[in-house]
Specification:
The complex is a heterodimer of chains A (72) and B (179).
Chain A lengths: L1 E5 L5 H10 L4 E8 L2 E8 L5 H20 L4
Antiparallel strand pairs in A: 1-3, 2-3
Chain B lengths: L1 H11 L3 E5 L2 E7 L5 H10 L4 E7 L4 E8 L5 H40 L18 H13 L13 H5 L11 H5 L2
Antiparallel strand pairs in B: 1-2, 2-4, 3-4
The chains are: A alpha+beta (72), B alpha+beta (179).
Chain lengths: 72, 179
């Protein structure tokens, strides 16, 4: 499942942190498409792929907000 | 009051909510809800929905809330709008009271700082004394020796009143024993 993160909202560091955090749960391929960072998320764990992608999406947002608040 | 109702509808139209296929899509204008408000609101929904933000144009942001199992998408869309208002008020209050809060915390920290400790005895500066007093003190200090024992305090009891030496007679002892 492909997720697209707009660079005006999400940070590159947040996406990379999420990739590291999901290392044992999903295989994530990163790329770029104009203003977007693309992430191809494939679940490695038995959980449904859509749920894993959704959790990945939330994780990236959480990391972006934490960075914006100066928490990380 | 119709005028007020009309105004509310007009404002609400700037925050459109669409619900389709278990997901609610909200589009907000950044002049109404700045990034801080939007992120704060999105953060509050991470436990109930998968939240994805996207840019519509320079002024508008699209928020897609895919409801988690057991959560109604329409409900979550409405709650998201409410939370936007809550966060906007919170931000406004934070901005309005920021200076006062900084002053209160600053004063609390200043009062919590311990008072400077008095200098150690060895570091104390001797007060200025009149020359004659200082001279007497200096002479006494020179004359003092820790080995001096003018009152015989350091002499052991055995040496002073041992078995061989008679204990000092008390008044009255001799009078009783005399025949």
């Amino acid at each position: 499942m492909q997720l697209r993160f707009h660079k005006r909202i999400y940070t590159d560091a947040a996406v990379k942190k999420a990739v590291d955090a999901f290392a044992g749960i999903a295989a994530v391929g990163l790329g770029e498409d104009g203003d977007y960072i693309t992430a191809e998320v494939e679940a490695v764990s038995p959980e449904p792929g859509e749920d894993v992608a959704g959790e990945f999406d939330n994780y990236v947002l959480g990391e972006t907000i934490s960075a914006m608040r100066g928490e990380s | 009051m119709p005028a007020k109702k009309g105004g509310t509808r007009a404002a609400a139209s700037n925050v459109a909510v669409e619900v389709a296929g278990g997901a609610a899509v909200v589009v907000v204008h950044k002049e109404l809800y700045p990034a801080d408000v939007l992120f704060g609101t999105a953060f509050a929904f991470l436990d109930r929905a998968f939240v994805h933000l996207d840019v519509v144009d320079a002024d508008r942001t699209r928020i897609e809330l895919t409801a988690r199992p057991g959560v109604d998408a329409a409900t979550i869309g409405g709650e998201f709008k409410n939370e936007l208002v809550t966060q906007a008020v919170r931000l406004k209050l934070a901005q309005d009271t920021g200076e006062v809060r900084t002053m209160i915390v600053g004063r609390a920290i200043a009062e919590a700082v311990p008072i400077e400790q008095p200098p150690a005895f060895s570091d104390r500066i001797e007060p200025e004394l009149p020359p004659e007093v200082a001279k007497i003190l200096a002479e006494e200090e020179d004359a003092l020796d820790f080995l001096d024992d003018p009152l015989g305090i350091a002499v052991p009891w055995e040496d002073k009143y041992g078995k061989d030496k008679p204990a000092p007679a008390k008044d009255g002892d001799g009078a009783e024993k005399a025949p």
